[in-house]
Write a structure and sequence with these properties.
alpha/beta
């Protein structure tokens, strides 16, 4: 795509990224105008336009090299000459377009004396415009270099006559027939040798340069040009070079090129660049189709070049553009990775640095080339190289350093764009690099061009990072404060806002007390200073700019929105972009920012100016793991095809959050961009106050997503909680009343309706199973199955079979496939879809269904939404079994066990009259959901089926379940503390929530009621006394358990023998009753035992749920300890049921291998295997040292 469009690319650059010099007719907008738009190719006469394109293009390519996406060779192949050569009246395309053209042309030309080859060469030159450009440029450059190099007048006359002869042949179109091209490869080799000598530029090579020039002259005059050159015949050296009869002495031959401008001194950058470019054109013999090789670089260039052909406003001059600010909230995340943190291995022996080297192997190689090291050990030689290593790793994580670098691209882009606006023709032809180099010499002069460009950029752009805890970190000597200070020093225009808490004497004179006073402070990096008397180097410290006293503590609501609210006063300009700490930006996208800001001045949708501009996001964490890839694809479809639909035609796109650009003045006068609320951080206030939200896809911002299942689930929980609160909020209520009917429906479907529908989907599964169970237990299904109309109902069976595919979630992948197909082709979309199925994507999406349902439903019942920090690190560690159990017990495991019990009972009581095929068709999708909810956390857990990890997890689980809780004991250390925390939402719930919790728990008692009448011992009895007897059995078992618990507490210390005798008697009694019931003909059967377990298990859980909902009453009754003991028994039972199949699968090594190969990318798999081999002896040595 880039190659085919590159000739139109300079025209697109100058049409959109360069301000127009004259007032032109307004451009047509819309789909038809966009599809019919054409950009003319830039002719060589338009030097200014070509020079401006070169400056912008080269800045993009240089940023790729700085980010290590390309190596030095690829950079040289992609660059356009910085310094326009006035002597070359041709278009100088990037060498990657001209690669291999010269060697191919030379090879074809040597056989061109044959008629067929001559015709073929001419046909190729007419068809291949790039080959023509390469030949013309090499010819012009050769002429230019020889004229510069040769100083002797006679030699110049000879060279000029040779070029004049060639020019005559070119004009008469007789070049191939007029010259003997068979010896052209020899001339080509000598010329390459000459260029290499000129690139090294060593004085001792002057004799070799003379010899090469003589050889070139001999080849041209003796072998290629058949006619004699007049100046050579009248040689002042007394003979004609190349003729044996007039051979001159050898020492005189050397004097022929005795006067040369070699070595070149001083060697200008323009001269070096010309030689490098010419050498590439001559020597690159393979096609540069794979340049750049890095997939991320190819994606970025492709998107950028395509975006220039989209519908976007023209760019104004930097002086006339809208000014804007970027605001990033930061709390305590990573600023810059430490060397220790990068090299510290996890329990698998995989360090973050090792992991990154395997994930980004080409970028690691490019990094080593950039810093001039051959291996990782060379980076330890100096602190500067170690700092470069930290930066390289941090730029590939979700760190503040990466975000700041990306956002400061805006300033660099504005500096270059201001230079292109303000530079005169001479400065423009010299290039912005010359302006940068000369700025050091004229740094004190405020009138220098580069100083003016920097001043204009500072006027138009402000970047504020709201580091809430910076003051506390600075006083505590936290390394994060030093890293933030280092960022301010690296980027002098960066500003940091923080909340400063101080203790000041009370202003009330009668009381000698100290009051806490809160300030919002803004600081910047101070210039390095050095004391006159001290020999120590100066330190860079921060310098306070503003300090605003606050009326009280700033954290009224959630931390993140309040972090934005207190710092928004320090932003400037008409626009404000809110950027999260895990986002990134790109140089090529920064060039389009002033185009985007022009959207604020264009009326959209019936004559309204926009108040929020929505942007597209690219998820850059998709290569970390398969889960990250799933999230990346899902998010890509949401932020492209989804946001596009919401904005137009539905008109219900609200503030999505991350990269949106706000009309700053509009929102500052309407309460800011964030709500000071404990439950809702971002709101619909912009739309409610007649704002207009649009979406634009010609510009994108990078975004990091969660990469581990626990992180993803926390993110899903956060979003589901927020939607639950929005469902109950007045914002949605007001929007529903003020929207028209169609926008109201669109708003519902695209916001809370999605989560409400998700919850209904899961609820329908419950209703379907309980309804089926009612039909089975009541005998209705068996009676209906004998009816022909029901038994042979083929349409119903087809519908039941097809719905399973819908429930598995294939239709949810359709928007994702469409978006990938539109952007990368439908073959890629299909292959990605197949690969996602092989990597268990349906398992992941079905598991996410349960996460959203649980947290959305719980928020509707009890409220209590909160901001959840999901973490920004690399998930390359194994999560403990106890940790997974804590996180997913209530949201997935309990519900999964309930559905499994319902399916088992349905199978047991319906198998006598129903075939297995019908059962499978009806329940396959529900079984899939059950297995997914129960075992997906362990399937997506790194090294989840390794036997040694299973043993460690078992020990950790036993330790956690047996530890007693108490004040100060975290939930991660004790089951009791975690169990208490899981009930916090019930304590703050209202009466309606408590009543609903009790009513929902009654379903377990109805389930028990249906099963007790199907036991063999109660067959034929429909008396209510049977149900009452079942409750007596439950109460009796609970009393026995309570008696054993009391006995253990009171008798086990002093009367151990008596206590053991009592337990033995209880066991023998139970055993005797059990055997008796089995022995009598009308007693229990083996199936009845299973049914009793399935019936009484859920009943006990229902009692627990009711007891937790009515906790104050239970505590006053004095049986809360028994409730806790019963709950612990249930947790142990569920843990054992989950752990047993995992431990069984861990016996087979191929299961672990399959998991690693299929669920994680190949680089991570290699990392695990290599680290096991290399890490084994290291662990042994470390253990011996400890001993």
């Amino acid at each position: 795509m880039l190659r085919s469009r590159f000739q139109s690319l300079p025209g697109a650059f100058n049409a959109f990224l360069i301000p127009v010099e004259k007032v032109e007719a307004p451009k047509k907008r819309g789909l038809k105008a966009t599809l019919s738009r054409k950009f003319v190719e830039i002719p060589s006469s338009k030097e200014k336009e070509a020079a401006k394109f070169a400056q912008l293009w080269n800045k993009i390519i240089s940023s790729f090299r700085d980010e290590d996406l390309i190596n030095n060779r690829e950079m040289n192949l992609l660059l356009v000459p910085y310094w326009a050569d006035q002597d070359l009246d041709i278009i100088q395309w990037p060498p990657f377009l001209l690669a291999s053209k010269i060697p191919i042309a030379v090879d074809m030309a040597k056989d061109s004396n044959e008629k067929d080859r001559d015709r073929e060469l001419k046909k190729r030159l007419q068809a291949d415009n790039y080959m023509q450009c390469a030949i013309r440029e090499c010819y012009a450059s050769c002429k230019n270099i020889l004229n510069f190099l040769v100083k002797g007048q006679h030699e110049k006359r000879v060279i000029n006559e040779i070029f004049a002869k060639i020019n005559e042949l070119i004009e008469s179109d007789a070049l191939i027939s007029g010259l003997n091209m068979s010896n052209l490869p020899s001339l080509y080799e000598h010329f390459v040798q000459l260029i290499e000598y000129l690139m090294t530029n060593k004085k001792e090579d002057k004799d070799q340069v003379v010899i090469v020039l003589l050889n070139m002259l001999e080849v041209v005059t003796r072998d290629i040009i058949e006619d004699e050159v007049p100046s050579m015949v009248d040689s002042s050296h007394g003979g004609y070079i190349g003729k044996p009869e007039a051979m001159t002495p050898l020492d005189q031959q050397h004097q022929f090129f005795g006067d040369l401008s070699f070595p070149v001194n001083p060697e200008a950058e323009a001269w070096k660049e010309k030689l490098r470019r010419l050498h590439l054109l001559l020597t690159v013999k393979e096609s540069a189709m794979d340049v750049p090789a890095n997939l991320e670089a190819r994606r970025r260039i492709s998107f950028f070049s395509n975006s220039l052909f989209m519908d976007m406003p023209c760019a104004p001059k930097v002086r006339n553009m809208l000014s804007f600010s970027v605001l990033t909230p930061y709390y305590t995340e990573d600023v810059l990775f430490t060397i220790n943190g990068l090299e510290k291995p996890n329990e698998d022996g995989v360090s973050i640095l090792f992991y990154l080297q395997k994930i980004f192997p080409d970028e690691w190689t490019n990094f080593l080339e950039r810093v001039g090291c051959s291996s990782e050990e060379g980076l330890r030689e100096s602190e500067e190289l170690e700092e470069q290593l930290r930066l390289w790793a941090s730029y590939r994580g979700q760190t503040l350093t990466k975000t700041v670098r990306g956002m400061m691209y805006y300033r660099k882009a504005l500096e270059l764009q201001a230079f292109l606006d303000m530079a005169k023709d001479d400065d423009l032809m010299k290039g912005y690099k010359a302006a940068e180099l000369s700025s050091e010499e004229h740094s004190k002069s405020e009138r220098s061009l580069w100083a003016q460009c920097q001043a204009v950029a500072d006027m138009k752009y402000t970047y504020v990072v709201s580091c809430q805890q910076y003051g506390i970190h600075k006083r505590a000597g936290d390394p994060r404060a030093k890293d933030i200070l280092k960022l301010m020093t690296t980027y002098p225009s960066l500003r940091v806002a923080y909340i400063d808490e101080r203790e000041e004497p009370s202003k009330d004179g009668s009381k000698k007390t100290v009051d806490k006073v809160y300030y919002s402070a803004l600081v910047k990096a101070a210039l390095p200073s050095k004391s006159i008397d001290s020999s120590e180097p100066g330190q860079s410290l921060d310098q306070e700019i503003y300090r605003i006293k606050l009326p009280g503590p700033a954290m009224l609501g959630e931390g993140k929105p309040e972090n934005q609210n207190h710092a928004i006063i320090f932003t400037r300009g008409e626009a404000l972009q809110t950027i999260d700490m895990n986002q990134d930006n790109y140089m090529e996208e920064a060039f389009k920012m002033r185009n985007l800001l022009q959207e604020f001045l264009i009326k959209h949708d019936g004559g309204r100016y926009p108040t929020i501009l929505g942007l597209r996001e690219h998820i850059f964490t998709g290569s970390v793991s398969s889960l990250a890839w799933f999230m990346s694809n899902q998010e890509t479809s949401f932020v492209t095809i989804g946001q596009r639909l919401l904005a137009d035609p539905l008109k219900v796109r609200f503030h999505y959050g991350h990269p949106d650009v706000f009309d700053r003045l509009f929102h500052l006068t309407r309460g800011g961009v964030s709500k000071a609320s404990k439950v809702i951080n971002l709101s619909f206030n912009s739309t409610l106050r007649e704002g207009n939200v649009t979406h634009h896809e010609y510009i994108q911002v990078g975004k990091g997503r969660d990469v581990g299942l626990n992180q993803i689930s926390m993110f899903e929980a956060k979003i589901a909680n927020g939607n639950g609160e929005q469902t109950l909020s007045r914002d949605i209520y007001r929007l529903g009343h003020r929207f028209d009917f169609f926008r109201m429906l669109s708003c519902y479907v695209t916001t809370v309706g999605f989560y409400f529908s998700t919850m209904l989907t899961v609820l329908i599964v419950y209703i379907f199973l309980y309804g089926r169970l009612y039909l089975v237990l009541s005998g209705l299904e068996e009676a209906l199955s004998t009816e022909p109309a029901f038994r042979d109902n083929k349409p119903l069976q087809v519908a039941m079979a097809s719905q399973s595919f819908v429930q598995i979630g294939y239709l949810l992948a359709l928007p994702m496939m469409m978006e990938i197909g539109l952007e990368r082709g439908f073959r890629n979309a299909l292959s990605d879809f197949i690969m996602m199925q092989l990597q268990m994507a349906p398992v992941f999406f079905t598991f996410s269904l349960g996460t959203r349902t649980h947290y959305y439903g719980r928020t509707l019942l009890h409220g209590g939404a909160e901001y959840r920090g999901t973490g920004r690190g690399f998930v390359v560690f194994h999560a403990k079994f106890a940790g997974n159990y804590r996180f997913y017990s209530r949201s997935h495991f309990v519900k999964g066990f309930e559905l499994m019990i319902l399916l088992l009972v349905y199978h047991i009581f319906g198998q006598s009259y129903r075939g297995s095929v019908a059962y499978i068709l009806i329940t396959i999708s529900i079984w899939f959901m059950v297995v997914t909810w129960l075992f997906a956390p362990f399937l997506f857990n790194p090294s989840g089926f390794e036997w040694q990890k299973i043993i460690d997890d078992w020990n950790d689980w036993n330790k956690w379940i047996s530890n007693r809780g108490g004040i100060g004991v975290p939930p991660e250390k004790s089951w009791e503390s975690w169990w208490e925390k899981e009930q916090v939402h019930l304590r703050h719930s209202g009466k309606r929530g408590i009543i609903m919790e009790i009513l929902l728990s009654i379903r377990f008692f109805l389930f028990q009621y249906g099963l007790v009448y199907h036991l063999n011992i109660t067959k034929g009895t429909q008396s209510v006394l049977v149900y009452g007897a079942s409750w007596l059995v439950i109460i009796f078992v609970l009393l026995i358990m309570k008696a054993v618990s009391v006995g253990r507490r009171r008798l086990s210390a002093d009367f151990q023998l008596l206590f053991r005798l009592i337990k033995c008697l209880i066991f023998l009694t139970f055993f005797s009753v059990f055997i008796t019931l089995l022995a009598i003909p009308a007693g229990l059967k083996a199936r009845d035992i299973i049914v009793c377990i399935l019936a009484f298990g859920p009943t006990g859980w229902g009692l627990l749920q009711i007891a937790q909902a009515c906790r104050p009453l239970v505590q006053r009754a004095g049986i809360w300890g028994s409730v806790r003991t019963l709950a612990c028994g249930y947790e142990i039972s569920m843990g054992m049921l989950l752990f047993t199949p995992i431990a069984f699968l861990a016996w087979f090594p191929f299961v672990s291998e399959f998991q690693t190969r299929m669920l994680f990318n190949q680089a991570f798999s290699r990392g695990l295997q290599i680290s096991r081999i290399l890490g084994g002896p290291q662990k042994d040595r470390s253990s011996k040292n400890k001993e």
